Amino acid sequence: MDHFDTLEIRDPAAREADLLARLPANISRAMTAPGWAKHLAGIDPKAVTSRAALASLPVLRKSSLPALQKETPPFGGFNVTPPGKAKRLFMSPGPILRAGGTARRLQRRARAVRRRHS
């Protein structure tokens, strides 16, 4: 069986430990966006190092996004990448707007999807 990379087939405990170790930095980066900073106000990213801590974070409902995006266009303040710097713009039928990642990341995802379906 082909795998996207060796990270996919590593020991599950090692994978979880790695992901949880990265979580505080990811939350900190998200909180640089005003929408996330407001939504996660009072949260200490350094304290989110377990599944239980992650589960305690407030949920952002998809149904809330259209109003938030209308209030603070175009992404409701939830974009870390400034709109003019995003490589792609995705719009769901909702319509929910989302800035795309780097072109390299998108290419890797596309290759992985093609492998799964071939």
Structure, described:
The protein is mainly alpha-helical and 118 residues long. The protein is 43% helix and 5% strand. The protein has five helices and two strands. It has a two-stranded antiparallel ribbon with strand order 1-2. Strand 1 and strand 2 form a beta hairpin.
Keywords:
single chain; 118 residues; mainly alpha; two-stranded antiparallel ribbon; 5 helices; 43% helix; globular
Q: Share of helix among residues? A: 40-55%
Termini separation (Å)?
12 Å
Average residue pLDDT: 85
Range of strand content: 5-15%
Query: What are the secondary-structure elements, in order, as H or E?
Result: HHHHEEH
Task: Please render the helix and strand layout as text.
Layout (H helix, E strand, L loop, with lengths): L11 H19 L3 H6 L11 H5 L9 H7 L17 E3 L5 E3 L3 H14 L2
Antiparallel strand pairs: 1-2
Question: Could you give a quick summary of the protein structure above?
Answer:
Helices cover 43% and strands 5% of the residues.
